[in-house]
Hints:
The structure is a homodimer. Chain A is α/β, with parallel strands linked by helices. In chain A, 34% of the residues lie in helices and 20% in strands. Chain A has 2 domains: 2-111 and 273-291, ATPase, nucleotide binding domain (Nucleotidyltransferase, domain 5), CATH 3.30.420; 122-268, Nucleotidyltransferase, domain 5. Chain A is built from 9 helices and 10 strands. A 5-stranded mixed beta sheet of chain A has the order 3-2-1-4-5. In chain A, strands 8-7-6-9-10 form a 5-stranded mixed beta sheet. In chain A, helix 3 crosses helix 9. Chain A is globular and about 55 Å long. Chain A starts with 5 loop residues before the first strand and ends with a helix. Chains A and B meet through helix 6 of A and helix 6 of B. Bound molecules: adenosine-5'-diphosphate (2 copies) and zinc ion (ZN) (2 copies). Chains A, B: It catalyses: D-fructose + ATP = D-fructose 6-phosphate + ADP + H(+). Chains A, B: Its EC number is 2.7.1.4. Chains A, B: Keywords: Carbohydrate metabolism, Magnesium, Metal-binding, Zinc.
Amino acid sequence: MLDTLMLGAIEAGGTKFIAAVSDQDLNLIDKISVPTTDPNQTLGKIADFFSPYSIASMGVGCFGPIDLNLSSSTYGYIESTPKLAWKDFNILGALQAQYRIPIALNTDVNVAALGELKRGAAAGEQSCIYITVGTGIGGGVVVDRQIFNGYHHPELGHIAVKRFPSDTFTGICPYHTDCLEGLASGPALAERAHQAPNKIAKDDPLWKVEAYYLAQAIVTYSLILSPAKIILGGGVMQQEHVLAMVKASVNQQLNHYIKIPEIDNYIIRPQLKNEAAIIGGFILAKDALRLE
Amino acid sequence: MLDTLMLGAIEAGGTKFIAAVSDQDLNLIDKISVPTTDPNQTLGKIADFFSPYSIASMGVGCFGPIDLNLSSSTYGYIESTPKLAWKDFNILGALQAQYRIPIALNTDVNVAALGELKRGAAAGEQSCIYITVGTGIGGGVVVDRQIFNGYHHPELGHIAVKRFPSDTFTGICPYHTDCLEGLASGPALAERAHQAPNKIAKDDPLWKVEAYYLAQAIVTYSLILSPAKIILGGGVMQQEHVLAMVKASVNQQLNHYIKIPEIDNYIIRPQLKNEAAIIGGFILAKDALRLE
Ligand SMILES: Nc1ncnc2c1ncn2[C@@H]1O[C@H](COP(=O)(O)OP(=O)(O)O)[C@@H](O)[C@H]1O
Ligand SMILES: Nc1ncnc2c1ncn2[C@@H]1O[C@H](COP(=O)(O)OP(=O)(O)O)[C@@H](O)[C@H]1O
Ligand SMILES: [Zn+2]
Ligand SMILES: [Zn+2]
């Protein structure tokens, strides 16, 4: 029966997996959250959740980096994650073996960016970047209303950055030490402040340093990708006062070199909050059906 | 007569304008180079060159930044150039008033990137970046075999960069002081070395600094755009030994975080040399006809 067509979505995160079922109009039918332990256990619980439903296709947003190069022998594998049980794990293969339906895989942040563009803060736009500043810093990119994948998907959080004057913090990225994520993620902030980021005083000078790095990254993305909107989410951005500091710093660092949209319409908050990747997953699932 | 259909191309550079005519198969028929003085004089000479030919359409690669946002009131204008006679000049409007044929305008480097992808070093690929390291540092981007334009076209040369350890050179970009172009363009090298870049000894430690910054930019572009090929051209890259240093530094800075194509097939020299923008211009002209 076409009118009971159901779609599946998985948001595969480093802490927890969320799985959900919707109808063909993306209305939520059921949802579950399970802790990220090892692949067998976690995917087993997800399978139990899906088993009562006959879903037609599935969209998956996964932590990464993941190999999305169709011509690669490790296509669909999780790559260099610090979560060793998942490193080099063929997540797409495992899901395909389990479900035997069309499955579209992409990164969590790309899928969230798609959700925000189609149903959230960037609705009606052609392009957007979705940045999450949390345990790591990640970014998803949508161009021409589709997820942007190059030879390798974007990894916006690991770019090198120019130092804030006087900032001597070493940085904590295991791959690059003082890349953007190494200097400005939630854990980097915690190490700088010797306390949890949500406990840092609003007038602490650290926020200026944080805003400077996030703004620098936004200027770099603007110079390279020039999206219509930049959506700034993640735990650290729950510090509401930081957004205005980021905007001011973007204007200062860009120094009018290129035109960007009016700043309050350019650097914005997410609308779908924790739902973006699941909604994006449903959209991917629906697209996967159309491509069949 | 369809078999005599002719295409026009202009490469509008800060030092000289090149104009050329080809047949519909992009075979060169005629070509001229005129110095860049003021708009009236330069475009007048270009008009004299084109007048014997009845060209059907034109593709223009122009120095920039230029406003390519169709919904902008200054669409087709040159923006923040230090060449004051051309700043805020409506080059597309001036050409359209002169020729009354379909005219496609884009940046010089975007058009060159298109030429290299369709007929040069990146032939057969879906995407490439074309970087020129000369008087300035510019970059063009082709994705899905088409020029990549966002809200504003890419301006790859002006990204902020992490300092090479011990590098204290101030930088010379009038907009950002020590952006990539400010630290690593030909004139920046000249000021660092107190001599013309082509006179700097091959074993001078400056080349290591230069290679570091170019490699850092390539890593950033790889993390954000992830193209199939990166083409490295411009006057400074005539220093043949620098390419290998850039490749080594890319591998070191990327630190295997993401997969890139095999490095010797990834970071490559241009094939079309000085012809890339003109060939790209003919391709744009031909595309503009098809879109009519
Ligand atoms: N209100 C807050 N203010 C500042 N930092 C916060 C806040 N809430 C969470 N964080 C930080 O954000 C990080 C968690 O990010 P989050 O986006 O919630 O999850 P994850 O990135 O793990 O998916 C932690 O480093 C945490 O300290
Ligand atoms: N053989 C060379 N070795 C090093 N630098 C060079 C060489 N030839 C030109 N340059 C430098 O490149 C810059 C000119 O770049 P070029 O790409 O030729 O032109 P433009 O960028 O003006 O279009 C100048 O700064 C010049 O010093
Ligand atoms: Zn990193
Ligand atoms: Zn600059």
